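Hi P.,

Sorry for the delay on this. The queue was packed all week, but I finally got your sequence through. Input first:
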Amino acid sequence: MMTLATRTTPLLALWPLAVGLILFALAPALLNQGLVFLAGLTLVNIVFAQAWNLLFSTIGLLSFGQAMFFAIGAYAMAAGPQQAGGGPFLMWLGIATGLGALAAIVFGIVALRRSGGIYFAVLTLAFAELVHVLITKTDWLGRNDGLTGIYRPTIELGIATIDLTQGDAYYWFMLVACGLASALLWWAGHGVLGRSFRAIRQDPVRAAFLGLDVDRHRLAAFAISGAASAFAGAVSAPWMQIVTPELAHWSMSTKPVLYALLGGAGSFWGPAIGAILFGAVEYATRTMHGIADITTGLMLLAVVLAIPGGVMGLVMTLRARRGATARATPAPHARRPQEQTP
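Then the structure:
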């Protein structure tokens, strides 16, 4: 029988998400419009990083082509309404997310035939470059110029209309949408499916012996990660109001990897912390023309070498040492009876 404590445990485990949403919700009141725009991009990057980390840390697949799903979602949101003459925003958001999942299934069927070692990573990188080239050669996707004039939407709910074109309305939509996406990714990584993913990562042969379909679970993880990445891209398109082929470039695929390494790939919330810190570093070095990338790279190199587990790895190590020290030190009330013994 499920107890009250058992039912509330998943909600309690999401307290970092609640704290993060509250902090991001304060941005429009405390920051200027430039920093609010950066906060919106960070929300998208958090979902992008968590989607990649679901694939890497949960089931053990290293993808170097995650940007193709982000670009598919962004271009679907940008080109779809323009080519089809409009349509409900939420419908296009669902289509963009579905296209990301479909692309992940199609590419995954081929790439997962070499799921071991570096082969899977190279195949995903090759598919991402293929998507990048296709975008630059397609007229209705704007070729190398990309697409501009992506307007922020108005959502029709039948009984009410939500106008996201005014003020910070679209930022609030992004906050809610990215929060829900993060919660769903947490559920996917910590539920029954997530436990199956971890069993496959630890020992695929033993997992198969226990009855798990390893190939199908790997394809499912790839599809979930692709759908979440495409969702992040689709949400970001109206926010940036421009999409370019650079979204599918290999350099874009390195971003979730860097976020995870900086924040800690071993923790679900590590990539989120990494995305926030990376955004802060990029903002702090924005005026260093010509050396901003070098400065950012050196700072990341120092962090990765000094704390291989990232920020969350450092926090867990400090907590473990603190716990070990507390266990090794007897409490005063525990020593008192021995001191009184003659």
